[in-house]
Design brief:
single chain; mainly alpha; 6 helices
């Protein structure tokens, strides 16, 4: 396959893998009771910020800032891991589902831990461990979708 063809297939695979990871994360957060409570508390806090600004006669800037922060976090969780794993996998011409699914899941699960100021490995409460597992599932599903479309054809042709 030509380089341009390979880039086209990889881009298409990423365009489908990223929403698949987002769908898996959304579904997991709706199904898991702990994550659902966290999601509900976050939505309630955002609504409280917006309503307090509106009742004070201010434009809802806090809601815009919260939406921008949420968009940045979702970008780091849903876009960066599949793109990085795809770049490394394509560069090394890897074909393994374990690479694309496992590495993408692991990187997605580690993103919140890597963004902290101080690591608290070994002291994670159960809610953080559950959220880490949900992020792993979301990343692994994005990596698996990428592998199905483009990753299994990444290496040299086998005869």
């Amino acid at each position: 396959m030509t380089v341009l063809g390979r880039l086209s297939v990889a881009a298409l695979a990423l365009l489908l893998a990223i929403p698949a990871g987002g769908f898996a994360l959304g579904l997991a957060m709706l199904v898991d009771p702990v994550a659902g409570a966290w999601l509900t508390a976050g939505a309630q806090a955002g609504l409280d910020i917006a309503l307090s600004d509106l009742s004070a006669g201010l434009p809802p800037e806090g809601l815009g800032l919260m939406a921008a922060g949420l968009a940045g976090a979702l970008f780091r969780l849903l876009v960066l891991p599949p793109v990085l794993v795809a770049l490394i996998g394509e560069g090394l011409r890897l074909r393994s589902l374990a690479w694309y699914g496992g590495a993408c899941g692991l990187l997605t699960a580690l993103m919140p831990w890597l963004g902290r100021d101080a690591a608290r490995i070994g002291q994670a409460p159960a809610a953080e461990a559950r959220l880490t597992a949900l992020l792993f599932v979301a990343g692994a599903s994005a990596g698996a979708v990428y592998w199905v479309i483009a990753g299994r054809h990444a290496g040299p042709a086998q005869r």
